[in-house]
Amino acid sequence: MTREIGYAVSGLGVGRSHVASAVKAKGCKFVAICDRNEELLHKLGDEFGIAPENRYTSYEELLRRPDIEAVSVCTPSGMHRDHTVMALRAGKHVLTEKPLEIRLDRIDEMLRVAEEEKKFLGCVFQNRLAPANRKMKETIDCGRLGKLITGNFHLKWYRDEAYYGKNGGWRATWAMNGGGVVMNQTIHTVDLMQWLMGPVKSVFAKTGTYTHPIEVEDTAVAVITFENGAIGTLIGTTCAYPGLEVSIQIHGAKGSMYGKNNKLELFKMADDEGFAEEASVLEQFGAGGSAPAAADPSALPKVGHAGQVQDMIEAVIENRPPMIQGIEGRASVEIVQAIYESARTGKEVFLPFVPPAEG
Q: Of 3.40.50.720, 2.30.110.10, 3.90.1150.10, 3.60.110.10, which CATH number belongs to 5-123+302-324?
């Protein structure tokens, strides 16, 4: 690295992962953390050795620091637009947690301001960095599966009532979370779905609230049609006691791949005589695999939140866009909003989707 950049994290819930990543990142001069919850602020500050003068309850005050070049925005989803725009206008590059925002018009404003200010805007979708998911992407893109036929993307998690009541209960609301299990938990799987299978043409969905006293959905099922002609299913629930897996099943005319919790479980190619390739792939990318560290120990920091924070720092230093840009975060939110519209109207919804004006 030719220089170090000042880095800050605002919102110390999921932001804790950003803090843990930034303090170890190459090229990073970790500067400051911000949260309105003083107890949490000082707990994390003590844990990571952040000086008291670098701990802020005021986001505006943090942004006035000229030694901060990049900020991770990890506040509640419905605040992402405001906090991202404030940082961009203050001359900072921004890495925003998923979802980029809960409404497309807000996302479009974020993208516009980033362009006006000539600053980078990245979006967190760390599951793309998992070696097994990258192997699936590579296999599809090089044509090994042939024509894509179906893709099934299922998230079956469990959250108790206490989860939805934490931090003022914002995850249980349309206003701050923009929805329930689809917008919050399943959006990572939505991103992988469109990244692997290609752009979505239409959705037909049903949602419901089955076991939680909340205003948003805790379960959703959607039939997906992709622009390439393939069809698929998307399932998301926080009612699957005691908390099960995220699974991906992709079938093409020349092969099939199954993934579970960011590991490969099946890799069957029609041209793999004797299944030697499958054995090798599962050894590297399966549940007991060690890729990428077995071949390249330096690759370890390149996965998960650590990978995205490191990439954002390198993007600023190298003056190039981050690996997952804000516009890519828009695609997943558009699909989620189309799912909600289909569930509301009982009709198939086609993309591009233009949400109805709010009353």
A: 3.40.50.720
